[in-house]
Specification:
Length: 565
């Protein structure tokens, strides 16, 4: 049982002095400015329309200085071509929170497939993917311009060489004072933003309760767990505003609907109120010093943008050779990232020899090497998209040999697939990519047709086509810190409906190579296991699978939304 929070006024007052603030809701009855723009796509799913929706919802008075663009909320909306134009008239709407370092564009494939499956069942539903405010700092100009020109050079010159695109020049990656305002973009503001989007688009609470399904991927499941236990009007006795009364059900995409981080065998305990105040005060000081969660290599704004560029190169010219690699800047961040992700062994990582840049590979093969479960070391970045071909491959032992990475010691954090790497670095050998359904080239013992589920072209498209990014350049440190503190004084008065998760039915998808999350504990939770899927696959899996059946996640989500079985 969770402890009730009492006697917190002194702690709350102290926290206010170091940056904790009250989140101001959108005034009741206020109708903000709304824009919606349909975006072009090369998706084979032509029965679904996708658009970017932006609502003018300013940050609270007294917020730290921030760009005007950050006084808006945005989401991607997918709907059936034959369905109603107004969301209020849709039969159901699935609303998704992204995971860590993830933006709304990551949901493009699963959203299209789910809406299309529902239409086949005779129902018109919608899928929305929310974008966090921090994404307002991103600059997608180069990628968008390259999609129009059809030339990767347009994007490379914009981001790397100071060239102009659409009347603009890339000003670099934000840091220092430009990101200081993100220290306030924690749990309370993130949940308030979701609530405001739902309340603006569905003014009638009864309609929200009837039609909206709330969920998310990865970190988005934990955010949804908090959302459904949140009180949004400051009065726990009134429940029309309670998070669980904004949703008719919940869905978890390789995650758990649970308030607080919860991994198998590891759960952060809830702290007594006095100790919770001390812990939160310390975490807020860290947040003030480091408002953006970034590492010296692998995970930071520059490298997360590289994923979009890798997808762009593979999308525009899949058989082109090293379009991204030969244009990458020569700086310590890029060098360390490439060596960390792609080194075959510790000696190659330490010496830089052979150089990753000397590998001769198609653009599809480069993208596959970065994100495929047989090469990408980190489980939360893995998708099952095929295997390199065209040259010899061998076991990859960096950063850990399979004997350790795939053992119970790592709790599944490195996925469940053996790691391989190209072994020849010369101009005469060109590595290509065997797609998920190129079964003749899926080499045992490293993989098989049953463990490959995402088309490399679909992954490339999702990484670069949506106007809201697949990746998140500036993930707020505050959000990570808040998620681990279920009894934090700054939101103790809001996190009060502690049975919210149990109030509605849940559909949970659990990939075999995904993150090791614990169960929700709800008696209303149906868990579907996904053999062969990795963490990213639940979002990107191809509509038609190698076993001849429709893709499982989108099919079951459509059934969940429509009530079909």
């Amino acid at each position: 049982m969770r402890l009730r929070r009492t006697g917190l006024s002194a702690v709350v007052t102290a926290l206010a002095a170091i940056g904790v603030y009250a989140v101001t809701p959108v005034a009741s009855g206020q109708v903000p400015e709304r824009t919606e723009t349909v975006y072009a796509t090369s998706s084979p799913v032509t029965s679904v329309i996708a658009s970017k929706v932006t609502l003018a919802v300013p940050l609270p008075p007294g917020s730290l200085p921030h760009p005007q663009a950050c006084d808006t909320l945005s989401y991607l909306r997918w709907r059936s071509v034959d369905g109603p134009r107004s969301s209020v008239d849709a039969e159901r709407v699935l609303v998704a929170q992204p995971g860590v370092f993830e933006g709304a564009g990551a949901f493009d494939s699963v959203a299209r497939n789910t809406v299309a499956r529902a239409a086949e069942l005779g129902s018109h539903i919608e899928f929305w993917a929310l974008d966090r405010r921090s994404n307002c700092l991103e600059d997608h100009t180069g990628v968008a311009a390259a999609l129009r020109t059809g030339s990767f050079d347009t994007a490379a010159d914009y981001y790397f060489n100071g060239a102009e695109a659409d009347g603009r020049r890339f000003s670099g990656f934000a840091e220092g004072e430009a990101t200081a305002w993100l220290r306030d973009q924690g749990l309370a503001q993130t949940l308030r933003d979701e609530y405001d989007v739902l309340r603006i688009e569905f003014p009638d609470q009864a309609v929200r309760k009837q039609k909206v399904l709330c969920g998310g991927h990865s970190l988005g499941g934990f955010l949804t767990g908090y959302f459904v236990e949140w009180d949004f009007d400051g009065n726990p006795a009134t429940t029309d505003d309670a998070g669980y009364n904004q949703c008719s059900g919940y869905f978890a995409l390789d995650t758990t609907i649970h308030a607080g981080l919860s991994l198998r065998g590891l759960q952060v305990p809830e702290l007594p109120a006095p100790l919770a105040g001390v812990v939160e005060a310390g975490s807020l000081q860290l947040d003030t010093a480091l408002p953006v969660l970034r590492l010296p290599a692998v995970i930071n704004p520059e490298t997360t943008n590289l994923l979009a560029l890798a997808g762009l190169a593979a999308r525009l010219n899949p058989d082109g050779v090293n379009d991204l690699v030969r244009r990458l800047p020569d700086n310590p961040n890029i060098a360390a990232t490439l060596r960390t992700l792609l080194s075959q062994n510790a000696a190659m990582f330490a010496t830089g020899q052979p150089s990753v840049r000397d590998l001769n590979a198609t653009n599809e093969a480069v993208l596959g090497a970065i994100l495929d479960d047989n090469s990408q070391p980190l489980g939360f970045l893995q998708a099952s998209v095929g295997l390199p071909t065209g040259g010899p491959i061998g076991p990859k032992s960096f950063p850990l040999p399979d004997s350790i990475a795939l053992s119970p010691l790592t709790m599944g954090m490195f996925g469940d697939a053996p790691k391989v790497s190209p072994t020849v670095y010369n101009p005469e050998t060109l590595y290509r990519w065997a797609d998920y359904d190129d079964t003749a080239d899926l080499t045992a013992p490293y993989t098989s047709a049953t463990s490959e589920v995402t088309a490399i072209g679909e992954l490339a498209r999702s990484l670069c086509e949506p106007p809201l990014d697949f990746t998140e350049w500036y993930f707020p440190t505050r959000l990570t810190l808040d998620l681990q503190q279920t009894s934090a004084p700054s939101f103790a008065a809001d996190h009060v409906h502690l049975d919210g998760v149990n109030r509605n039915p849940i559909l949970t998808f659990r990939s075999s190579g995904g993150i090791p999350v614990a169960d929700s504990g709800s008696p209303h939770d149906e868990v579907i296991h996904l053999p062969g899927y990795n963490h990213i696959d639940v979002l990107t899996a191809a509509a038609d699978q190698n076993d001849g059946r429709p893709e499982v996640v989108s099919t079951r989500l459509a059934q969940f939304a429509t009530g079909a079985r």
